[in-house]
Specification:
Largest sheet: 2 strands, antiparallel
Strand content: under 5%
Number of helices: 25
Strand order of the largest sheet: 1-2
Order of helices and strands: HHHHHHHHHHHHHHHHEHEHHHHHHHH
Helix content: over 70%
Oligomer: single chain
Shape: globular
Length: 493
């Protein structure tokens, strides 16, 4: 069996403990943050993500720092943990920038318009949402990455859904449900490798055992989306023919354009680092734009024809800043726009501020204290599972990072599961059912911020429709309460 180890710095991450800090003090920054965020969203509404929420996260970090000072934690220690937190997101931040670049070149090359063009002819509103779940699940299993899935087929499916008149929240929820199912079940996924490593289990035992709760959850999710497909009232389906004509008149649409996304998916399947795969996809998109859409590239710069200078300028504009393709259809003009790397800066800003809050919380020992308090309340097997779920949810909210939501509870609870005679697969499955999938439901979590930024849909809009993600923790608790498939270390008499 191949050894699938997660990155060392994740697996060996140090968890700060502070005996001076009690649970009530540890909860002060959390209560303060939630209260400030709630009021901020009430005042700013959807605009809160544009900057004010970021400052509120820093204010939450300041409250945590004050608590730390009163409990003999040095400024240097808190800053060190913040630095480690921010450092751990370097790859994610670079991927975000590259996703913005890729979206730009895939737009002007015709890759995304081609996906929408052919998708409108194949997918009708009745089956569309269920198809989003299935397509996203297949791509995510193949790539092992919900992030790559959202950045490629996810963007295209959002465009198709918008053209069909389907709510963006519904489409995003369906995409994320399928993407996170595939992410959980893929041996290529980093979180799928990380969870058994933290629990002390084996990768393929973990995947097999996780399917017990994951498969019923995705089937329920699919059933709900199928029912929704028969009941939703769309307004865009009647305009499909005119949209297709506008796309055909504006761009050179052909099957060769699909070479670009196919190459990117194959690179990911072959375990090419996502950053490198996305860079190659961006450059391929640029080449295909020059070959198939020379007039579009020139149009972006205001030039009458494509020259070396206008081509260079058009490609760089698509990669870095907001660009759009003008058509004779008003609906398409909004749809055929991309924000480039600049469009990802707000999300990056949010992630950095969230890491500051999470770093200070870790630095003062609050994360460890909250997790230990949850563990102390676990008097039964169900209580142990519930404490694990609660700990993962708390870490996703406070640490703003799904990896910490797996690492910290994994380290803290592994011995407790062994003491109860429970196999490590119980813990690793619960870590994924609650830590991995719920990260996308928190606006300031790295995953929530990423997917919201890439898909262009706020967490508030897709939260309810990300059925697989919020249903998974309930499913794992239901199986624990009913004592269904709770694997023991040894047979009990």
């Amino acid at each position: 069996m191949p050894k699938n180890k997660p990155k060392k710095y994740r697996q060996d991450e140090h968890i700060v403990d502070n005996i001076e800090l009690n649970i009530w003090e540890a909860l002060i920054p959390v209560v303060a943050l939630v209260g400030m965020l709630a009021y901020n969203v009430y005042v700013f509404g959807d605009e809160a993500i544009g900057g004010s929420n970021q400052f509120i996260l820093l204010m939450g970090g300041a409250v945590a720092a004050i608590v730390g000072f009163f409990n003999k934690v040095s400024y240097k220690q808190m800053l060190s943990e913040v630095a480690e937190n921010v450092k751990s997101t370097t790859g994610a931040l670079l991927i975000l920038l590259m996703v913005g670049a890729l979206a730009g070149t895939w737009l002007i090359s015709g890759v995304i318009p081609a996906m929408i063009y052919y998708g409108l002819q194949i997918l009708n509103p009745t089956i569309f949402l269920a198809a989003c779940v299935i397509i996203s699940a297949i791509i995510s299993i193949a790539t092992g990455s919900s992030w790559t899935t959202a950045a490629t087929v996810g963007i295209a499916l959002i465009g198709i859904g918008e053209a069909l008149g389907i709510s963006l929240g519904m489409t995003a929820g369906a995409v994320l449900s399928g993407a996170y199912f595939g992410d959980k079940m893929s041996p290529l996924s980093d979180t799928t490798n990380l969870a058994p490593a933290m629990a002390g289990g084996e990768l393929f035992d973990h995947i097999k055992y996780m399917s017990i709760t994951t498969v019923p959850t995705i089937l329920i999710t699919l059933a709900v989306f199928i029912i929704m497909g028969f009941t939703i009232d769309t307004t865009g389906s009647a305009d499909t023919e005119s949209i297709l004509k506008s796309i055909d008149a504006t761009l050179n649409i052909n099957g060769w354009l699909f070479i670009v996304p196919v190459v990117v998916i194959l690179l990911i399947v072959k375990k090419t680092p996502p950053l490198a795969a996305l860079l190659i996809g961006t450059l391929l998109g640029a080449v295909f734009a020059l070959i198939f859409q020379p007039d579009i590239v020139a149009q972006i710069t205001g030039a009458k024809e494509l020259t070396f200078e206008s081509g260079y300028k058009g490609i760089l504009k698509a990669i870095t800043v907001k660009t759009s393709i003008a058509t004779d259809n008003a609906a398409l003009n909004d749809l055929f726009s991309a924000k480039g790397m600049a469009g990802m800066l707000g999300t990056i800003w949010l992630i950095v501020c969230a890491m500051v809050f999470g770093g200070v919380m870790d630095g003062i020992g609050a994360l460890s204290r909250i997790t230990k308090s949850l563990l102390s309340m676990a008097k039964t097997t169900l209580g142990l599972f519930a404490s694990t779920v609660g700990s993962c949810l708390a870490l996703n909210v406070t640490a703003s990072d799904q990896y910490l939501a797996i690492v910290v509870p994994g380290k803290m609870f592994s011995q407790a599961y062994a003491d109860r005679g429970l196999a490590p697969e119980n813990l690793s499955r619960t870590l994924e059912d609650s830590g991995t999938v719920t990260s996308v439901l928190i606006p300031w979590n790295t995953c929530g911020a990423y997917h919201s930024g890439v898909l262009g849909v706020s967490v508030a809009d897709y939260f309810f429709y990300a059925i697989f993600n919020w249903l998974s923790p309930f499913m794992t608790l239901f199986f624990a309460a009913m004592n269904i498939k709770i694997k023991q270390l040894t047979k009990t008499i």
